[in-house]
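A quick aside before the break. I want you to see a complete sequence-to-structure record at least once, exactly as it would be stored in a machine-readable document. Don't worry about memorizing anything.
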Amino acid sequence: MKSIFFSLILIIIFFITHVSVFAQNGTIKGFVYDKTDGAPIPYSSILLVYSGTGVVTDDNGYFALTKLNEGIHKIKITYMGYDSLIVDIDLKKGEVINKKFYLEKASLEIEGVEIIAQKEVMKTETYVSVQRVNAKQITQLPSIGGIPDLAQYLQILPGVVFTGDQGGQLYIRGGTPIQNKVLLDGLAVFNPFHSIGLFSVFDTDILKSADVYSAGFGSEYGGRISSVMDIRTRDGNRNRFSGKFDIGTFGSKMLLEGPIAKEKNNKKENSASFLLSVKGSYLEQTSKFLYRYANENGLPYNYLDGYGKIAVQTTNGSRINLFGFSFNDGVNYPDIATYKWNAWGAGANFLILPSVSNMIMEGVVAYSDYKIGLSEAVAPERSSHVNGYTFNMNFSYLKGKNVFKYGIEFIGTWVDYDFTNFYGTDCGQETFNSELGLYLKYKWVYKKIIIEPGIRFHYYASQSFFSPEPRLAFKYNITDNIRLKFAGGLYTQNLMSATSDRDVVNLFYGMLTVPEVFSSEVNEKKVKNSLQKSQHLVLGLEFDVLKYIGINIESYFKNFSQLTNINRYQVFEWDDEFILETGKAYGGDVSLRFDYKKLNVYASYSLNWVTRNDGIIVYRTHFDRRHNINITTSYSFGKKDAWQIDMRWNYGTGFPFTKTKGIYPRSESITSINSNFNNNNEVLGIILDDINTGQLPDYHRLDISIKRRFVVSERVKMELILGVTNAYNYYNIFYVHRLTNEKIYQLPILWSVNYNVKF
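That is the input. The structure line, written in tokens, reads:
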């Protein structure tokens, strides 16, 4: 095993130290930026006018034109919504030229720019089971609380199930929240959603992109078995000081950004910028008089999030970013439960562009910490503490439209989990785990075909287990408007949740690692370790209908061949603390996007089946929503589109739940033959029916927001947002209390007002 890893490391070192130097042919490479704020423009087109060939920029706005003959080359740079740029470059034999290009936004708005731009990307990337989300898309949703948020947008994506607006979590194509990897600038975020379920820890105004991989993700991602959210923040404005202030009925926000060393177009100078975001909720205070009808004691949710970033860019486009965050959340139900968590992290990511090669080197060095605690009146306290470090290096070698990518990743995680179950048994864990990942990936473009094979080698030190994980993505451009796609792969994971897959209502989102001691078999199959494992298959079609309509159809299958869960029924210390299960998730999604003039429409439908097998029975999970529909519209009107109305309607079939068959007094509460369990305070036992054979009523909700924009000056703009959540006040059931039979409902109709100023 050691020899395998040693050989792979030697291969990577060879590629690092033997980058290609073009002695005979020349190379033109560089970056494309937005002239207004200096932000890179990904997927812009770089065309060699005389030959008609070209490439597109990557996520960093980087491109490389290779194997060019000496002479003058006319290059045309284009991107939808920007004015084209044409330049002449005189290239000498064997020369490597680094350039920066700046595009200006078009004076006239182009109809359907979002759809058209997305269409061009889809032709050149495999993009299977991937949704790329940007800040503009998020602002086209009804703003709950007046502040657009990524959490609200994720809920409308196909294959995503949201379990509730009171501690709800996201379940993506059959995977649980712990099986979703969330990255912020390359650093893993252990809990990205606040307890109310409507807000994430991320500020929409600082997002560059958020790529959501719901299945079949590539070999560059490891350590999770269901999905990946790769969230990247933008740099601060390199040209001028600017900011934004928000204040509303739910909370407030402040954003400041500006240059430390100004960007000067086409000048051989370094530049630097800063970005600072702080947002918080005071809903617990305002709800006591604004939303008293929802809960006479108020809505006990509070959070405070902060993010800071310093970005430094060199003359050739290389850069380093220093960033840090602090996220805090708290819930206080008097006499019932107190719940809080906090997370913080810091790190650096960098991009290095060697002067004599068309290679890009990227990396991340970071550390994060997450603590959570829950105190309940009728149950033992629970706490979880997890922290760890991340170091990775990624190398991308561009050759025309083809890309060879490889990298190495080190992960160290320390976990401290403290929990005593109902029977008084200590189920705690304290351990340190380290992981090593190596991957290779190649994107090959041949005419209408794009093939992207890859493999990841992941080593788990605590399990002494080496996991080879092949991955494959494929796309065939059948016509200019129809594309067939496929993806699949093998995946493993060490982290697990402190909650069970059978828990319906649980705010406690603690974490631990899979145990080193495990059962010898799962569902009559021998096992070598207790890692969680899955296999993915995805098949889909993309259609471009007319010029402004895009349709995506996908079917998927996830085989969870090994899942580790906490044994909720451990009585004695010698009983198993954990159980091994298997599971399956399969179904299909259809999504439609329409973008024309002032109207934007997005609709999705998901059909899903999710089951688990504990070796005795096969049961539906509590998040197995068979049908899920989301329809969103955004329409701008009035002079200079000063008004905007946004609507979202969501329908979903009811969640499964385990019915109660009966209630009885537990034996320890019977003190005499004359004990009356009807009027004494005995401890009651519950007889449960088969797991999740019941089903709650269907769920549906309409959200609406109206925005009015005011232009004070060229730089100062104001916006007033009026929002209504659950507009027709439908009583959606969250759960039913087993002892009292009381129905616990999700949030009723909530109105909100928000006012913001940009400068």
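Two observations worth writing down. The longest strand covers residues 379-399. The chain has two domains: 2-110, 119-658+693-758. We'll return to this after the break.
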